[in-house]
Design brief:
This protein has about 180 residues and is an all-alpha fold. It has two domains: about 50 residues, Homeodomain-like (Arc Repressor Mutant, subunit A), CATH 1.10.10.60; about 120 residues, no CATH class. About 75% of the residues lie in helices and about 0% in strands. It has nine helices and no strands. Helix 5 crosses helix 9 and helix 6 packs across helix 7. The longest helix is centred in the middle third of the chain and has 26 residues. The chain is elongated. The N and C termini lie far apart (about 60 Å). The relative contact order is 0.10.
């Protein structure tokens, strides 16, 4: 008998959503397939109809989490004409993202927080490469190196204690100054 086609939505999406909650709260290692299935009233056979393994499910959870984020960040870069406009929109995007993150991260396991932070930077890198190509004037280093410097510089700045207490205009200016130094 041929295997049924796997449809998007329905029970598959419910499994992904519940797995996201459990992975975020308990961590990958402490979350079992059985725990997920108990929450969705499912059986092991159903799980393996949708996913080959817990690893594959985790990848789907991460993809789902970052799909909207990646699109929004890419549109900010494509639509921003000036550095000022870009950083203003970036700060709005960052603050909205942090509000959402704090809404789900209350009991988030530290391993997942670390993985999400690293993945955020990887998700942003293709868009930052485009931005560096658009803005760089005097730097001659390879674009991926400069993009990494910009990304990690912005990340370190956004997460510093001094930055957190600045006004919106001060924050934007600090980021513009950083970009000008690197580009």
């Amino acid at each position: 008998m041929a295997k049924k086609a796997i449809l998007e939505g329905g029970k598959r999406d419910e499994i992904i959503y519940v797995a996201m909650q459990l992975f975020f709260e308990k961590g990958y290692e402490a979350t079992s397939v059985r725990m997920i299935l108990d929450k969705v009233n499912g059986e092991v056979g159903m799980f393996y109809h949708y996913f080959k393994s817990k690893d594959e499910l985790f990848q789907k959870v991460v993809e789902r989490f970052f799909a909207d984020y990646r699109q929004q960040f890419s549109s900010i870069i494509e639509e921003a004409v000036t550095k000022e406009e870009f950083f203003e929109r970036l700060l709005e995007h960052y603050e909205e993202g942090m509000r959402k993150f704090h809404g789900i991260s209350g009991n988030m396991h530290w391993t997942i927080q670390y993985a999400m932070s690293a993945r955020t930077i990887e998700e942003m890198k293709p868009s930052i490469i485009k931005l560096v190509d658009k803005w760089r004037k005097r730097c001659t280093e390879p674009v991926d190196i400069v993009a990494g410097q910009v990304l990690y510089g912005i990340s370190a700045t956004l997460h510093s204690e001094s930055f957190q207490v600045m006004s919106k205009d001060e924050k934007k200016q600090v980021l513009i100054d950083l970009a000008n130094r690197l580009l």
